[in-house]
Design a protein that fits this description.
With 290 residues, the protein is of the alpha+beta class. It is 42% helix and 19% strand. Strand 8 and strand 9 form a beta hairpin. Helix 6 runs antiparallel to helix 7, helix 6 packs across helix 9 and helix 6 crosses helix 10. The longest helix has 16 residues. It is globular. It starts with a helix and ends with a helix.
Amino acid sequence: MNYQKLYLLLLFVLTFQLTACAQEQQAEPVKSSMTNEQIASYIRKAFNVPANVTITVQENAESKDIPGTYPILVVFKGGRVDQKQEAWITKENKLIVGRTFDMNVDPYKKNQDKINLANVPTTGAADAKVTIVEYSDFQCPYCSSAHVTVKDLLKQYEGKVKVAYKHLPLAMHNWAKDAAEASVCVHKQNPETFWKLSDYFFTNQKVITKETFDAKLQEFSTQNGINSEELKKCMADPATKQKVDADTAEAGSLGLSSTPSFIVNGRTVIGAVPVDQFKQVIDEALTTAQ
């Protein structure tokens, strides 16, 4: 779709006179003469954004200033879309779409600093030089494939790699968030059983439905010594939902919106990539690890 270029290609420029912007010095950012609603309306037309996707424009206080521009954040929500995109408006109402990069900051470290690994399911060597942070969805078929790849990598790099699991249930999957919340609660009861549950979900994706989810979870709990009453109470606790939402928000801050996605010592890996491709990323991370 044409509108996807706005937040996937990132560097599509409608109109931008760089020399004029670079030479102009202003103490304060320019305020657009257009309202945020007018800007959103223009973006919808320019990029052919469907009616079922809402567009919200807001001032982007965290943006790096481009002299002579008004920094905005464009938020898309609806359907399969949940994206944010940086943009800037010049005083002549020209739109710049893209991202800014601070070359004084190591991008790998910047990614790692955004990740909270407290009380997160992990497997592999505790003192491993490489940490693979996996953002995944238990209902996603590509995640199921990647799950096999990750287990293979743990064997091949035994003692050198550990994996931390984070939740990114997609709205298009109707039992994925239930599964994420259940896994948070299972991890709370028994951290090791979390990994058995992840195996169970990925292996049984084709037979689990929204309607059969509770029965399948009960079946797993009975077979693996999970206290069902404690599990139900935990899943009803708002803190459990907040934990899953926090993981999802963290993924968004890293620019991740699809599953599976991985951060390997700060390096981004998107999708169920072949094992040899994944190994190249790990080998580089091992080479540079301190």
